[in-house]
Design a protein that fits this description.
ten-stranded mixed β-sheet, 15 helices
Length: about 375
């Protein structure tokens, strides 16, 4: 009886209830989408391995390190494997076509990143072709790259027109793997620079180091940096996650602003919902007085108000959560490679549900207290 009464009351004013549900749906959807954007911002750091270290120039990432550092790092106790990578920064057709491009030591780099899934035939084809390139499946889908295609990039850091042949399209081991990157042979870059600008040859952007024991990352990081202290190119060694977070920190203000907007959206819909419930209680003062006269206590009246608020909030929240998945999928595709990983997490869905229920509970606090305190005589007098 109570549940039936709650739902009948909730839809007594169909237009008002419908508009409130629509508002809640939009608010929950917006909150979920904004939360997903924030998570996408940190996706690179969250997907980083705790067994990999990044070694870079201590001054800045833009300053390279000598190739000779490779052997010295490899000899440090605790280092299991090592590879190299250089940020390329090329332009594909137009400057707006941004995607990460790295010149890597192909023979070792892929072994350090088992989360990049590639078929044996594509891997062999990539290894055989000095101009070969690997592209992530999201990058391939965005720009229509196919196996055998020739991709021309206009160099910015390394001037000139650079041609590559797509020899492999890699997928991710899980949903959080970045599949929007472009990899090619460092040897191709280095040999070309020897001809064009010899002084820039044999230079490394970062060393990627795999450690045998993740619990020793601090010790090994210190050992690497100590080995090159007072050299012409001192190093800064940090975990892969810390390295990724360094990029995120550059745009921390944007992330904070997005979080504030998401919470503001929930606060606004809370005010709308509270107003709806307040209007409901004012209109039914006589009914609550009648129920009291018939012997129903304040607890019953509070349950009616809270139940109605939770029913409306629950419907709006459920619709908002259901719409989040297709909207997020469409948004992620529209953004292309700007957000390499854009998925709605279970945490986001849980937060959406919690926010919807919180709005329902909080919006009913004062109306429920007012209904419970209705004076029978005054309530019946208002009806007369």
């Amino acid at each position: 009886m109570l549940l039936s009464l709650i739902f009948r009351n909730a839809f007594r004013h169909k237009l008002r209830t419908l508009l409130t549900i629509v508002g809640l749906t939009v608010a929950v959807l917006a909150f979920g989408l904004l939360s997903t954007v924030v998570e996408a911002w940190y996706a690179g750091a969250e997907g980083a391995s705790n067994a990999r270290l990044i070694v870079r120039n201590s001054i800045s990432l833009v300053f390279p390190m000598p190739l000779t550092y490779r052997q010295k790092i490899r000899q440090i106790d605790g280092v299991k494997a090592i590879s190299t990578a250089n940020w390329f920064g090329g332009v594909y057709k137009e400057p707006k076509n941004y995607f990460p491009q790295f010149a890597v030591e192909a023979s070792t780099y892929l072994d350090l990143y088992p989360e990049y899934v590639l078929s044996d035939s594509e891997r062999k084809a990539f290894m055989r072709d000095r101009k070969g390139a690997l592209v992530g499946e999201k990058l391939a889908a965005t720009y229509g790259f196919r196996l055998g295609d020739t991709v021309t990039l206009k160099g910015t850091i390394f001037p000139g027109q650079w041609e590559f042949v797509v020899r492999g399209i890699y997928s991710g081991r899980d949903a959080k793997t970045d599949v929007s990157q472009f990899f090619f042979h460092w040897e191709y870059l280095n040999e070309t620079m020897k001809i064009r600008t010899p002084r820039r040859a044999n230079q490394i952007g970062v060393y990627v180091v795999e450690v045998a024991d993740p619990s020793r990352v601090a010790e090994i990081s210190l050992a690497i940096d100590s080995a090159f202290r007072n050299s012409n190119a001192e190093t800064l060694t940090e975990t892969e996650k810390a390295f990724q977070l360094g990029f995120v920190s550059m745009t921390e203000a944007i992330v904070v602003a997005i979080r504030l907007v998401s919470y503001l959206v929930i606060f606004i819909i809370l005010a709308v919902m509270a107003n709806t419930m307040a209007m409901t209680v004012r209109e039914r003062t006589a009914e609550y007085a009648t129920l009291k006269a018939l012997g129903f206590g304040p607890l019953f009246l509070r349950m009616l108000i809270y139940g109605e608020a939770l029913a409306i909030a629950g419907l709006g929240g459920a619709l908002g959560i259901a719409l989040t998945y297709p909207v997020a999928d469409a948004f992620g595709k529209a953004m292309g490679t700007l957000f390499p990983v854009f998925i709605v997490s279970d945490l986001t869905v849980g937060m959406q549900l919690a926010c919807a229920l919180l709005v329902g509970i909080v919006s009913a606090v004062f109306p429920a207290r007012r209904a419970a305190r209705v004076n029978i005589v005054d309530g019946l007098r208002s009806m007369a």
